[in-house]
Amino acid sequence: GLYDYTNDMFAKSVSGFESVRSKVFTYRQLVDRSLRHARTNTPGAAYSYSNTNFVVAGMLIEKLTGNPVRTEYENRIIGPLKLGDTFYVHPGMKIPGRHARGYLTPDEAGAPLVDATEQTVSWAQSAGALVSSTRDLNTFLSALLGGRLTSAAQLAQMERWMPSGTAQASGLGLRRSDLSCGVSVYGHTGAVQGFYTYAFASKDGRRTLAAVANTSNNGTVLNTMLRTLD
How far apart are CA 144 and CA 200, in angstroms? Predict the structure, then answer.
């Protein structure tokens, strides 16, 4: 039931982004933004996507392990899976190596696109401040759904589904999408200013599809990606 603090932060796409592009937040500062609002529901009562929940998860990781999330990502996921294109660079603003540039559609019609590539992504942190590639996303999902990252019991917890829209359901950090052919696929979508990603796999992780668009607030593009997945 924790309110998603990004609702206020990005009420206007471009001006909201420019106000946080170079800022560095603490987890506590982000959670405090959420706690200014009443709970959206009692815990577990209804589906309500909130970046705040993932920030709280980051706080828990650091509290329980005594390490920054970067260290835990590298030791538990990036290193074991040999994800050579995946980095946690926060609070740095540069993407290492060759990379796509991401653009925001302006809030005012006719204004030029906004290059959003360089940013701290500090507003997200454990809610999405990772740099990766479609190849690494495929590798990650195959490992997760194939049971190579968690125990069977933990994966089963992630896959306790709650309806979250037409032909889709959500678990813990996982989303199930029910395609028009009757097949269900599992994964997630992700948006950070300038970039939008689809990454889904079959139940056993053997078939995967990851796609990225270098825009994050263009409905026409995003709907095209949804149809491509189907």
Answer: 11
